[in-house]
Each structure stands twice: as C-alpha cells, then as structure tokens.
Amino acid sequence: MDSSPTQSFNLEQPKEKALFHLGGNSGNTVFQHATHYMINQTNSVQTAGPMHAKTLSQEEIDRINSTFDLIIILPANTLSVWGKRALTNLRNNLSRLKIPTLCIGLGAQAGNGVSIDSLYSEIKDEAVFFLKSLLRNGKVSLRGEFTGAFLERLGFRIGVDFDVNGCPSMYLFGENLHIEKKEHVSLKSAFNGFRFWNEISAASSFDLYPGSIFVCQEEFYNLLNRQEPYSLIDKKYLWDPSFKFDTLNREGRIKLYTSLRDWYSDLRKLSINFSFGCRIHGNIVPLLGGIPAVVDAFDSRTLELAQFFGIPHIDATQDFMRKKNYDFEKLYSEADFTLFNSLVSSNFQAFKRFMFDGGVEIQPLSCSDLEEGRESERIQGSLVPSQVSTEEEPSDFRQPSHIVLVAHEFGCFKGNGGIASCLEDMVRSILNSKLNLKVSVICLQGATSKDISSHPLFNLVKLSSDTLDNQGKKIAKIIAQLKPDYVEFADYLGLGMETLLRKNEKDFSNIVFSTDCHTASQECFVWSTRSRKLPEAIKAQVEREKAQLFLSDILTSPSKFLAKYVEKNYCVPHVFHLPHVLSSNLPTKPLKKRAFPDLKDRFVVSNISRFEGRKNIHVLVDAFLKFLDNYDEEAILILAGTSVINPLSGKDYRQEIIEMIPEFRKGNILIFDYVGEKEKKKIYEASDLGIMASTFENFPVSMTEYVMNGVPILCSRYCGCTDFLENTYDFASFNPFESGSLLKQLVLFSSLSKQKRETIAWKQREELIKLTTFKRSVIDKLRLFKAWEKHSSPQKNLLNVIVQNFWEMCRKMKFFGFVIKSQMKFLMKELRN
C-alpha cells in the first residue's frame, strides 16, 4: 500500500511527496483504507509498502518472505500504457516471493471507445509476464468487464485464472448499503474531478447550489496547504478570471481529504445529499454514506465500475459541458438506484468468498465504527487578497532582454504553414512595440519581410539540411552562443530536445525554456490518414516532440482545444492558452463584397488552405455536391492552396479531390494552386462563407484572415476557432462526428438574410480582436517568463525535479527505445546526484 489508515498524514510535506503517500491522489486512499479496515478485524495486518514503485532488492524480498504469511496488492488501473513500468516492477518482485499473493481490484484503463486490441498491442508482453508471475502463487480479482475482456484477449480464463469483483471500497459496510432518494430535495452537491471544474458549467453550478462543495483529490494540495512556492499550475487557478478558486476557498467549499474516515464523516456533517463527477472514488465515498451519486463515466475504468455496481452514470460529452449550467435536479430525479441496491448483497458475498478462498476472512464495518476516531485532518486553507492580482501589468513587471524562437519554418513564402506566419506576426509585433526586445529566430526554412530583416534588434539563423539529431545539436550550440533569457520552441519535430537535455549545463542554466504547441507529427499523420499506425520515421519524431514537451519549463498553445488536447494526450500537467497575435497586414476594416460579373447573385463558399488529409477537403466537397443537388445548383465553391501527397494512396491530394467531382459539376467547384495576397483578397471579396472542414484543428491562420476580412466562417466544434465563435456558435460550427452536420449548417447559413450574415461576420470579428490582443499574445507570455524566474526553485534543484519526473515519464511515453546510451548515462547521473 501507498497509504495506511493507521499512520497519521503529515500535512507539512511538499506536494510531490504528499501525493506519493496518497497513492497519486486521495481517491486511491479509499480502496486501500477500506481493504485495511475489513481485513484488520480478523487478521494481523502490516503495511509492506508499495511494490509497483521499484524493483525491490533481494534483501527486501527475503524480509517479506520471512515476515509475512500472505501479500495483498491493490494495483488499481495498472493495466495501462502509463503502467508498463509498474507492471515490470511488480513482475520482478512477485516472481521472487515464496508466499501466496492476493491481487484485488486490478483494472485496465483506456479512453472510451479505445478497443481491447489497441490496449493489447501496447502492453501485451508486460501484462502477460506480470499475470503469470502473479498466478504462479496467487489469485486475481478484477474491477469489471472491460478488464475481464482484456485478460481473455491475453489468453486467461474467467473463473479459472481470475474473478470479477469490482473495487473493494464498495464492500466496507458489507450488505448494509442502500441508496434511497428523497423527493423535493434542495440539493447540496459534492462535485468532483477537474473535467467538471475546468468547464463552463462549473462556476454557475456552484452559484446555483450554495451549499455545494468541490472535492479535490490532488491538484489543489499546495494552494490549500502551502509548503512550497506556488507553481505555474497553482497560479493558473489563482489567475482564473472567474476567481472560482479564491471565492470557494474563502467560503470553505474546497476540500481535499487524506483519509477515508475524514472524507466519509465530513460529507455527513455537511449534509451533502448528491454527488457528481468523473472521479470514481469521489462518488463511491458518498455512496458509502447513503448519498445518491451519478458518475461521469469518461473512460474504461470509471465506466466498468459504474456498470459492475449498477451506479447511475452518464458520459458528460463536450455538448453537456458547454452548457452555462446543468439541471442537476433533473439528473438527480432521473438517477435510478434499483439495480445498484439489488446487486449489493450478491456482489459482497462473491467478494467475501474470493477473499476466503485466498486465505483471508473479511469483516465489514458499521457506519459508527468508521466515524469513531481522531478529528478530521482534511486539508483547508485560505488566501489573503494580495495573493490574487487583477492588475493589467504588475508594477515590478520585468521582461527578458533577448528571446530566441526555434521552429522548422518562419515567415511567408510559397507553401508556408501556420507556424511560419504566426511567428512572423509575433516578431513583427514585438519589434514594432516599445519593448526594446532583441529577437533571434532559428529555423530550417524561412524568409523575412524587409521591415523585419532590416530591424537592428532582429537576427535570423537558417540551418542547412541535416538529420534531426544533428540539427538539434546545432541549435543547442547556437543558443549557448546567443545567451538569451527566454527560448520558445515550436512543438513540431522537437528541435529543442538536445538543448533541453543539457539544460543543467552552465550555458543554459539561466534560460527559461517554453514550447508553443501547434500541431505536431502524430496529429499531422493521424488526423490526415485516420490511421494510428505510425511509420517508423514519424514515430521517432513523435518521441522527440514528447520529450521536448515534458522537459520544457512552460507550455503554451494558441487555442483552448489544443491546450486541453495536449494535456490529455501527452501527459503534461498544464498548457497555458495564449492566442497568437494578429498580423498587422490584415485590414483594419472588413472588405466590401464585390459582385464579380460571373458570380453575381450566387452563393459563394471558399477554403484557402493546404490540400492534405487532415483538412477534410473531401468532406467539404462531398457536402457541397449534396448542397448543389438538393438546395442550390448555382452555388460556387472555391478551393485554393498548395498540395501534398496522400501517404496512404501515394497520389497528389488535390488530384484526388478533382477526380471526385462529376464532370457536370466542375463549373461549380473552382480549384486553384497557391494564391498570393492579391488573389486571396479577390477570393475574400467574392466569398459569402469560409469553411474549414477539419475534424480537429488548432487555430488556423487562414480562418482568422477570413474573419478579419469580414467573411464569416464555419468550422468543426473541435477547432480552436470556437474560441471566438461563442456568440455565433449555433450558426458557425458543425459536429464532424454527426453524419450530415456540415451540410445541415451549410443549408442553414445559406438561408440567412444578408443582414444576418453580416451580423455574424461582425460578431466573429469583434470576438477575434478581443481575443488576440498584443497583451494576451505577447505580454502575458513574457509574464510567464517573469513568474517562472521569480517563483521557481533554484535552477539546479529545478533541473533535478524535472529530470526525475522525466525519467518517470519515460515509461509512460514508451521513450526508452529512443534515448541513446549517452543520454541514458546522463539521466542516471542526475538521478544519483
């Protein structure tokens, strides 16, 4: 176990050590404490410590063999990609034990919709070796059907090699558990999970339910019980414009519990009568107290436990979270606990039989048993007003004197991508400001406008063609020579990895490193091909990019969508949303719609972007052809941009688009190659609507150009453009996963009056201008530099933390196969130091 109820919790320890002793988060104390309570009634129990964290020495194994009669392990959701290292440690330890082992509550973890086969391909070897070591002298109980199906895929048999009994925490009170709802109840809710906290609905929900609380399980530890300087993640919550954390904390409505007893008792004292969120144990503790709960079943582990125990559950999709508030009274009234109550007795008897067969007799507690004991040690805290600043700029604001931007491309040239344009706009805005800031750009491909290249504070370094490894080494050497204060890498290709692996060296020790997340190699391939099987060359690039993200001091992204995407898919704690600055070349007023003779009175749709798979141009063309057939046969679609080769078919992507257009419709769909600024202006003047059909998209420059030129846009709801579409969302977004959604929105927009279209265009332009100010795009980025410099630990200590975290993260990212031997030695040396 990581946590034992017999040991008092030290609130004065720093966050990382505290979370380790909580098993990663306070929810993991629930099943550990519950198991300890049940078996301690009839057995002599000692805590041997976690066996997943490391491979034990032979001396430690000998001590366990000679001291104990039986080992119980609770590995939770270790059957996952991130748990591969833990599976290896468990296998190494269990294979040397001579005493029986009981494995309780073993679970597999994958996102909703992820197949068993996908998980099988990722962790097959580690999982099989672990289970064989366990079954050599042990028994296994699983969390639910998903995990059972995974073990069957591995070749193990239900009823022979394993049983399915759910989570042991649900059996704390045995058969004495019954949920009964009350009618006409005034809800006092316990919300849990940052999936809820970070969404729009949260702030209004706390206002709607004054007695409600938020149960945090890890992230607010330092804010509530400050033992170290505030991290950037802490400041994210302090700087939240809604002041949600500050307000709720002052009212004593944010809780983080360090023991099951305190958690259970406090919910009853506060008269909580409903629970909702994506944390499974954040809902199980209320259920133990007879409090109705509904689970936001967002992945396999929460879903399989909710299904096994019959707990009412929903999948709070993005549509649900977008609502300003949600009718929790309705959710409460519709929650049916008939199945839950009917399963309590049979589930407990099956678990009790499994434990007895394994040599352990369990004894459930009564409610009064659990409530007896020491007073609550839950964590609380308060913040003085001076710790939350609302000033536009702090009085002691200090900027760096020299920044370096590193990317594969920079500037405007034929076929340039969004990163090149964004960086040029950022550089121009800095040089034209009063910051007096020196800017150097290191790139593989680039071109500069005369106003930038001639500026005395600008320096461009272009690298010659070479391997990524060699280019990374050259970049590290150049940065060491330039001696900047602040370096920002683009995520694509991971060009900063070699520099970051040397960040403890003297030449780099005073530099703050940031990575700005755009769209990296994995997304470029997967979103284009819809295939998750990456070619070997791309795999290498992906590993570089993952390492760079993890080793950076600061992570930013120009869109909320990509910030959340990177946090979820790359296992990083927080990505700051900082929109890109708008180009100074964009018109200050919308262009006037000009009636070209051949397009007079015709509805014109256009798209200016590269022809590639992830842009979903074939989806746009298909929807437009149906629009022509059924609604407006005179409409025009204009497509313009450079093209790439489809990696799956080997054909030019633009040519594939041309081939899908019937001959009699080619007069309605006009296709062009690269267009310059003059040609683009003509397209904007002709267009009634700009469409970006990508399923996922970061913050496409082409769409911001449409909006600033006065052309309204339509895009996927999973696109960064939704950051400025809030007031026109119903007209300007479609669901890429709903058949016919793009066509439906196209028909809706075409039916609008000229005045309504102009209003939509005006609202989008107004919101975009508000979002992409110089302050938000540049000044706030420099404020992050100051915050990091002022509040972080000394650089050498910081490095050690990062390197240790990096070493741990390697196993989550399948990184061992990539790091070369010399880099391995460097990391090991740092860990020893």
Summarize the structure.
This protein is α/β, with parallel strands linked by helices and 833 residues long. It has 35 helices and 23 strands.
Please state roughly what percent of the residues sit in beta strands, choosing from under 5%, 5-15%, 15-25%, 25-35%, 35-45% or over 45%. 5-15%
Q: Provide the residue-averaged pLDDT.
A: 81
**Radius of gyration using CA atoms only:** 29 Å
Unreliable parts:
373-397, 790-801, 811-833
Arrangement of strands in the largest sheet = 13-12-11-14-15-16-17
Question: How many individual β-strands?
Answer: 23
Sketch the major β-sheet: 7 strands, parallel
Fraction of residues in helix? 40-55%
Protein described:
The structure is a single chain. Helix content is 43%, strand content 12%. With 833 residues, it is α/β, with parallel strands linked by helices. The strands form 4 sheets. It has a 7-stranded parallel β-sheet, sandwiched between helices. A 6-stranded parallel β-sheet has the order 7-6-5-8-9-10. Helix 25 (560-569) links the parallel strand 16 and strand 17. Helix 4 packs parallel to helix 5, helix 5 (116-135) packs across helix 6 and helix 26 (617-630) packs across helix 31. The model is unreliable at 373-397, 790-801 and 811-833 (pLDDT under 50).
